[in-house]
Design goal:
Elements (H helix, E strand, L loop, with lengths): L10 H11 L4 E5 L4 E4 H17 L7 E5 L4 H13 L2 E4 L6 H11 L1 E7 L3 H10 L5 E5 L8 E2 H6 L15 E6 L9 E5 H4 L3 H6 L8 E3 L6 H13 L3 E3 L4 H11 L3 E4 L1 H9 L13 E4 L6 H10 L4 E7 L3 E6 L1 H6 L6 E2 L4 E5 L12 E6 L11 H7 E2 L2 E10 L5 E6 L3 E4 L2 E4 H8 L5 E11 L3 E10 L7 H9 L10 E4 L14 H8 L10
Parallel strand pairs: 1-11, 3-4, 3-5, 5-6, 6-7, 10-11, 10-12, 12-13, 13-14, 25-26
Antiparallel strand pairs: 1-2, 8-9, 14-15, 15-16, 17-18, 18-20, 19-20, 20-21, 22-23, 24-25
């Protein structure tokens, strides 16, 4: 007897169900273009796009790259891929053109759909890739020798495409955050991509919500918020982050929940319009990407929204842990507890569970967790072991099951034989008045091997004395953990789109330097 389910979890089914259940309700407000679409309209446009791509000769399993800022077309592309069995490659527009072309070449892209502001990249891709047969464009500007997106839709059938898609079929390639070098990519299946429910269940999502998607939609988190709005039948405001515009849209559209990275939160707090904007509709803000500094958290709670959610996971795992406002009240320094169907352990170098309260490497898995990197067996073997994904993050679990993050394994600085967790030092420095941001790295030292070095960004209009930073750290940190050098820079720290500091760039910049803004 076959004991598998007769039904399957497929991404296209989510939009089909929403088109039936919430047909006339608004699905998307595309803020950059001012257009609004109901769930029925969104489903029809996704069907038309899927059929249009088939009309151009593409077939199930072929790779379709797409490149755009946050617009409704990105949501349509995701669902057209889901309905057609085509495999997507959402491109990060912050990458260099040569990197985008390299990624398209790696996966063998047959098609590229672009927002017209990126037409020059389409030209480069056409010249470099022999596999590229179909180019299409949308948005303002000249056609540029590419198929016009809206014309494609007008000429295609609105019926669901006639193709069988299974839950374990590949859906799209996602890219890691890329804290070093070219991002790695991995395949997300339909099963992986329909596993967002537990995360949003933990965020107390409901039909009455109005969602705002500001995370870049080329990433897994951005798509997750698109999917959440569809699952719950919520209106979704699609916008590219600009602090003043985000505040205006929250007030006008009566947004109830959104997902930010800490940097975005800091920008909202610095926006002159904040204190004269009506934000009473917000019932919650969700933070992820990097640890939320206490000054940002306290400022957001006091001036933007009193109820904060945080979550932890990797692009490769999807969400593993969520901290609700109630969790935050009980355990303010924790990132929360594992969500439904997710498992988290803290282990030593041999993969054995460490005692409660001790620090080790966080490993995890969930239905959203992928099984390896594309064409990268070495990195796959390093990360995916014994049925668990090894995150490379250091943390500990308390007796109640709350998870605490202590930094990255690779952020471990070994100075004079002593291990220093960069995250611990960063947390101390962020508590000093006048500090906006900081990152702690290990720079080469002929005597100590590595020297603990803090790169500090002062708040706008303020200055920070390196000696004051060191004196402050001595109050709460052991001597070997206290920075030996403090480097002050006025420009923001280099970060990935998901908010992680690209520390390798700081090491490249400062290793071997003799900056005057240091104390030895």
């Amino acid at each position: 007897m076959n004991h598998t389910s007769l039904g399957q979890t497929r991404v296209g089914d989510m939009l089909d169900a929403a088109a039936l259940r919430f047909a006339r309700r608004e699905a998307f407000f595309c803020a950059p273009t001012g257009r609004r679409f109901s769930f029925a309209q969104a489903c029809e446009r996704a069907n038309r796009l899927a059929n249009a791509l088939f009309n151009l000769g593409l077939r199930k399993g072929e790779r379709v790259a797409f490149l755009s800022t946050n617009r409704v077309e990105v949501a349509e592309i995701y669902f057209a891929l889901a309905k057609s069995g085509l495999v997507g490659l959402p491109l990060n527009y912050r990458l260099a053109p040569v990197e985008m072309v390299a990624l398209m070449k790696e996966v063998g892209a047959s098609a590229l759909i672009v927002e017209r502001k990126f037409a020059a990249i389409a030209t480069q891709a056409r010249e470099a890739l022999s596999t590229l047969r179909v180019l299409a464009a949308f948005g303002e500007g000249e056609p540029g020798g590419m198929h016009d997106y809206e014309t494609m839709l007008e000429q295609a059938s609105a019926e669901p495409p006639a193709v069988q898609v299974g839950e374990h079929d590949p859906y799209y390639f996602n890219l890691t955050s890329g804290t070093t070098g070219l991002p790695k990519c991995y395949l997300i299946s339909h099963y992986n991509a329909t596993s967002f429910f537990p995360m949003f269940h933990a965020h107390h999502m409901r039909y009455e919500d109005v969602v705002m998607t500001v995370f870049p939609m080329y990433g897994r988190v951005g798509f997750g918020w698109v999917a959440a709005g569809v699952i719950w039948g919520c209106p979704n405001v699609l916008v590219n982050f600009d602090a003043a515009q985000v505040l205006r849209l929250i007030a006008r559209e009566r947004v109830t929940i959104s997902n930010l990275v800490p940097t975005m939160g800091a920008m909202l707090l610095a926006c002159p319009e904040l204190d004269r904007t009506d934000l009473s509709s917000l019932r919650g803000l969700v933070f992820a990407g990097s640890l939320l500094p206490a000054p940002v958290r306290e400022g957001i709670i006091a001036r933007v929204c009193p109820r904060l959610y945080e979550y932890y996971g990797m692009q490769e795992t999807s969400t593993l842990v969520v901290s609700t406002p109630e969790d935050r009240a009980r355990r303010p320094d924790s990132v929360g507890m594992p969500i439904l169907f997710a498992q988290v352990r803290v282990v030593d170098a041999e993969g054995r569970d460490v005692p409660t309260g001790e620090t080790g490497e966080i490993i995890g898995r969930s239905p959203g967790t992928v099984t390896g990197y594309y064409n990268n067996p070495e990195k796959t073997a390093e990360t995916f072991r014994d049925g668990w994904l090894h995150t490379g993050d250091l943390g500990r679990l308390d007796a109640e099951g709350y998870l605490y993050i202590n930094g990255r394994l690779k952020d471990m600085i070994v100075t004079g034989g002593q291990n220093v967790h960069a995250g611990e030092v960063e947390a101390a420095i962020l508590g000093l008045d006048g500090v906006s941001d900081c990152a702690v790295v290990g720079l080469t030292d002929p005597l100590w091997g590595e020297t603990v070095t803090a790169v500090v960004v002062p708040k706008e209009g303020q200055s920070v004395d390196p000696e004051a930073v060191i004196a402050w750290c001595r109050k709460s940190l052991a001597g070997f953990k206290t920075p030996k050098r403090v480097l002050i820079q006025s420009e923001p720290l280099p970060r990935t789109p998901t908010g992680k500091v690209q520390k390798f760039l700081l090491v490249e910049r400062y290793d071997g330097s003799s900056s005057t803004a240091s104390v030895d």
